[in-house]
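Quick one - inputs below.
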Amino acid sequence: MTQNETNWPALLRATDSAVQAAAVRELRDVLQAGLRVALNGRSDVSEAHLEDFAQESLLRVLERLEQFQRRSRFTTWAQAIALNVAFTELRRKRWQDVSLDALLADGERLSEPAMMADDVLGGDEERTRLVATLRHAIETDLTPKQRAAILGELREMPFDQIVELLGTSRSAAYKMLHDARRALKQRLQEAGITGADIQNAF
Amino acid sequence: MKTGDQRLTGDQVGTIVKMLGLTTDREFNCGECLQHVGEYAERQLSNKPVSDVIASVEQHLALCPECREEYEALRKILEAGQ
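Output:
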């Protein structure tokens, strides 16, 4: 039986254990079906993965039931959590061998001309001036960890992996990156490069 | 293991610059985005207007490729269920 969307939280908290168990089973099936649709065609995802992701997601949803604010359908909210669980795990597997030392070492080179070479900028004068200012700001205004985190993001390293390598929390890592972007943007603006210049440069 | 090729491509340099262009003083982080992305996806699919809070989801999705990947997967699920 498909639950009425408004009933899900109450059923998942039901004191009648049979009712609660049935709702948990049904939610698990809903999450697994959604994950099957979302991850269809990926060679790195098997049926066993889908079962594991659904089970892990179910636990995460039950832990966070209090956070559901009824701003969307319950199953939409739960599917978003399930996708976060699944993609986080898939990204982690791909990047598990990267070390903090390697990331920091590469991050240290981020401001070098060789890393952001002029020949990839298409010979555009404004773009070249902007990138030269950016290189200088990266070198003078950012910490080594901020440089490493930005480089990790650019290379599509999973955010959770960056968090783990930096030995911090997700919110602290996000703030570190946000502060870095704000500092770089401010430096560009101080050099007379406007928001519109930045938007239109690439 | 190294983190990748040393040299950044023109696209990657462009990505840094674009991210700076989108940067504002107050932004959603990934956790805040996750909390609201369901409402955002449902509104997008039904062409309903977005509130200021939900506009913050849109701004975060423009900056965060991981949350954008998850949002696109969520849309796929919602579209399949329509």
